[in-house]
Design goal:
By secondary structure, the protein is mainly β. The protein is built from four helices and 29 strands. The radius of gyration is 24 Å and the shape is globular. The chain starts with 10 loop residues before the first strand and ends in a 7-residue tail after the last strand.
Length: 444
């Protein structure tokens, strides 16, 4: 819980005391529960430093996939981070009333840092979410006391560090304005709850396309489609730089932030096409793509891929043999060596990154989700998202619906190169190609 000008900093790293990922921080901001707790199957730990600060380490938990065939905690080593604002602490607090047995409760004051840089009373906030506390459980008559609706305005930044090569990558987050509906109210759930999620927000989204902006409305049960519609793209493009004279390395990170909401049922839902099977190995629920490369002098080539979960698409190949992206967050090491130092998969080891042999030392690359550019039989519109209603901004009446082509995707390319004895790293966000139809979805 952050006070008005607070800043919470943490690092996600490979836990040296375990096999998965963990959060490490020296930040004093209040968390509920407090990070570094020593209880549970994956206990955290704390360490007091020479300057008096406290280092807290909290491992990630694998319970959501505990029943999967692949239930290893190592799955926490790859993924992405979501931050969702749940509410605002009421600055007025609650005064004590001894005559009526009312105790003082001022959560905004508890979270505010004093002159020593430490929040006034983190323990009171933990107690509020504990049995008998003001905020614990929906059955508590005081649930929601001193918690107001989210107000927005949060910002964040992230940096990826490759310690082995002394390279750093600054990654800008994607922010969604007005995620919550205007009448949503406070949305804070009990700590440990998996809600709220990306499927908890407003059912309407404003999506730009072809110089126009469309207000698209989805059914309440399909609220996650409103988030997906903001990230829909037919293809993504970015640079590739693997020049051996510079020891160049390029990783593409391709993330489908809402994928799990479409593939974890008994059947896959559009825009995704393959259902996740928890009884199989991790590389399932894969989406076929077409990859093309162009060098800096306009010469196009077909890339070659050498791992079993990311196959090449040779001329005349059956569409079923097209390359596939099989995870919510995919890392593609363009020359088979990862710029961010991710472990690259082999035929016998399904790990974080997949290798892609690049025919071009320098140039650019496109990944298409609509299978355009493949063989004639592969040119299909396989991925699309359909809205319940849509209207052109300011145009008034709703039409029957809008279809957005592609997949909900975001990500970046990370580059590393060497100049003498020095390594350098930089990042470029993927460029997207947006497509779809503003006419009735039934007509498509």
């Amino acid at each position: 819980m952050l006070s008005p000008r607070d800043h919470f900093a943490f690092t996600v790293f490979a836990d040296p005391n375990g096999d998965g990922a963990a959060i490490i921080t020296r930040d004093n901001s209040c968390t509920v529960p407090q990070l570094g707790a020593a209880s549970g199957d994956y206990p955290g730990y704390t360490q007091e430093n020479a300057d008096g600060s406290i280092t807290r380490v909290q491992p990630f938990l694998p319970y959501q996939y505990a029943d999967d065939e692949y239930d290893a905690v190592q799955r926490t080593l790859a993924g992405h981070v979501e931050v969702i604002e749940m509410g605002v602490l009421n600055p007025t607090g609650r005064a004590a009333d001894a005559e009526n047995g009312v105790t003082a409760f001022d959560p905004a004051a508890y979270a505010t840092h004093d002159s020593s840089g430490v929040p006034a009373d983190c323990g009171a906030l933990v107690s509020a979410w504990s049995t008998g506390g003001d905020w614990f459980g929906a059955e508590n008559a005081n649930a929601g006391v001193q918690m107001l609706a989210p107000s927005g305005g949060l910002y964040g930044l992230s940096n990826m560090l490759n310690n082995s090569d002394a390279a750093a990558y600054g990654v800008e987050p994607a922010a969604i304005a007005d995620f919550w509906a205007s009448d949503a109210g406070e949305q804070h759930t009990n700590p440990g709850d998996t809600l709220p999620s990306l499927a908890s927000g407003d059912v309407a989204a404003i999506v730009p396309n072809a110089g126009e902006a469309f207000t698209i409305t989805y059914a309440a049960a399909d609220a996650v489609d409103a988030v997906s519609s903001l990230f829909m793209a037919e293809s993504i493009s970015n640079d590739v730089m693997v020049n051996p004279d510079l020891s160049g390395e390029t990783d593409w990170v391709v993330t489908f932030p809402t994928r799990r909401y479409y593939v974890n049922g008994t059947t896959a839902e559009k825009p995704f096409t393959d259902v996740y099977d928890s009884d199989e190995a991790p590389n399932n629920a894969c989406e076929r793509v077409v990859i093309s490369q162009v060098d800096r002098e306009e010469s196009g080539t077909d890339p070659v891929v050498d791992t079993p979960i990311f196959s090449p698409a040779p001329p005349g190949a059956d569409p079923a043999d097209l390359p596939e992206l099989c995870y919510e967050t995919n890392t593609i090491a363009v020359n088979g060596v990862s710029a961010v130092n991710a472990t690259v998969s082999t035929a016998d080891n399904i790990n974080v990154a997949v290798g892609l042999d690049s025919a071009n030392a320098e140039g650019w690359q496109t990944i298409s989700f609509m299978l355009t550019g493949g063989t004639a039989s592969a040119r299909t519109e396989e991925h699309w998202l359909e809205s319940a209603t849509e209207s052109l901004d300011g145009a008034g009446e709703d039409a029957a619906g809008l279809r957005l082509n592609g997949l909900p995707v975001m990500g970046f390319a990370a580059f590393e190169y060497t100049n003498g004895s020095k390594n350098f790293g930089f990042v470029s966000d993927h460029k997207t190609s947006i497509g779809g139809s503003a006419t009735s979805a039934a007509a498509n």
